[in-house]
Amino acid sequence: MPRTAWSALWLAAFAACGQGPTAIVDAAMFDARADGAAGDDAAPPDGPPLDGEADGPLAIDDAAVDGAVAIEDAAVDGAVAIEDAAVDGAVAIEDAAVDGAVVIEDAGGSDGAGPLALGCADGTREGFVDPTAFPTVAACAGAWDGEVGQAGALCAPGWQVCDGSTFAVTNITFAAAIGFPGCFAFDAAHDNYVCRPDCSAQVAAGVDTADGLDMGGVGAGCRFQFPGTASCLVGGRIDASENSGTGCRYAAGITDGVVCCASIIAER
Asked: Is residue 133 located within the same domain as residue 252?
């Protein structure tokens, strides 16, 4: 049947149903498909693309756009989540350094019980064992070579051997410092009942000889304890060594490890 006859029939049918002008495009599409690929009838009429041709590309375009938006949203959300986590972690550490009451969360574990939270390289605290109560200071077991300031390998990443200034910021009391066994040194000298931040530097300062310096310590196992006196602690003094011939150096039988402080304290 000629194209014009098909169109007339379809137009009459759609007009009777009240379909309006949209029947024109659908009739043309029907003619093109009914008459086959040969002859003039196979070519679509001039004007807008047929519905069958337009909807395909539009649907693909929409899907591509929606997919891109979803991917971009996911990328943005992911970046925001990572950035939030980094900010929250830094805030938690800084808050802990300020008020000593915030747990430093462990980025490597959901339970906050890894080395970063505990402060010790081996993931175990021997002293100040509760990271909630003591978020920025930890007593860590182990041996080292040389001066106490060189024992950083016993501390977790983001932590360092406490010196007199960083330890003083933690406000550790004498009572808390003897609340666990062993003796753990930190990098300070207590000679003359003064908190001297860098133990070995006190030789050049004329405080004492390298063998006679009184190295600060914590733990019930430290032999030199003086409650109610001045030092880097609050309410008393504890020395890991005192005129012992080892000064600020490691010696088996004198120290069981070191005291580590969160590095954020030193950066403030």
From this structure: yes
